[in-house]
Amino acid sequence: MKRNNLLILLSVFLSMIGINASAYDIAVKNADGVTIYYNFIRISSNDAKLVVTYLRDKFNSNAYKGTVVIPEKVSYNGETLSVISIGNWAFGGCYGLTSITIPNSVTSIGDQAFSGCFGLTSITIPNSVTSIGYLAFSGCFGLTSITIPNSVTSISSDAFNNCSGLTSVIVESGNTKYDSRDNCNAIIKTSSNTLIQGCKATTIPNSVTSIGYWAFYGCSSLTSITIPNSVTGIGWYAFQGCSSLTSVTVLNLTPVAITGTVFSNRGSATLYVPKGSKEAYQATDYWSEFKEIVEIDQTNIDKIMSEENGKAMIFTIDGKRVDNLKTGLNVIRMKDGTTRKVVVK
Hints:
By secondary structure, this protein is mostly beta strands. It has helices at residues 2-16, 278-282; strands spanning 26-29, 35-43, 48-52, 66-69, 73-76, 79-86, 97-101, 108-109, 122-124, 131-132, 145-148, 154-155, 168-171, 178-179, 187-189, 194-197, 210-211, 224-227, 233-234, 247-250, 270-274, 292-296, 305-308, 311-315, 321-322, 328-333, 339-344. Helices cover 6% and strands 32% of the residues. Strands 1, 2, 3, 5, 6, 8, 10 and 12 form an eight-stranded mixed sheet that branches. A five-stranded mixed sheet has the order 14-15-16-17-19, with no helix packed on it. A hairpin with a 2-residue loop joins strand 23 (305-308) and strand 24.
């Protein structure tokens, strides 16, 4: 026991002075035979905690494969140690990782913890997690859905960038920092009304005032997007890598300030703007670089409503049902490229 404590103290000391003889402090095999690598992150006279780490090199593709179950507690040299964090780069580049189970003891997911795990198809973030770091899930192409528990109070704005397979993005109700209002399939920072993460199925709510950096980065299946007139700013790289984006509707009469790095596919996309604002967009840097700018007439409004069980049900002219429309004016993009306006009372 004394020898073990000395090793723990030595590990902590080496990390403090910037010397790291190996990427991990201990390696412990699970009951299922999978070896997981850990570092000690805190120590007192009778206590130590563990953080999951990488094998040898950052983004070591051979460190973890298949299914990995992270235990809540680890027995090592007669001691029981709690696993409280998934560290920076812990699973980065493990393209053979297909499934991960995170215990309720984990409170943080570090920078690039799962970056490049394109074989990962699903993950459940437990309600113990409070923070998700920089590029934590970047490049996880296989992920189709993500649910942010109400315990999370900090999410890096690029935590899920380049997750091109996402179709469902949900923040649990009760979260005080983030939300997915109006079933929008996005993560919104509540205090600033900033959309920080979207996906190919996102509908931007009318209450959103800005679209954050990297918000739709790498959404290669996104074909169209409507930006409501409540949006006054769009961050860098927000729509970079959206190679299938061919239709962008902006409902602002005045062009929103952007840079050339926002829409990488603008040369192949059509920009739809309110009637009377085409000249302003044509005269504005970067907006003018869209393949075509087309005005939409907001005076001709189609009112297509019926009542079903006391709820307003909205249909487009071709009979396709559209849910989650807001009270007031809604603009619907049709498959043939035309638009329809619907007023919900």
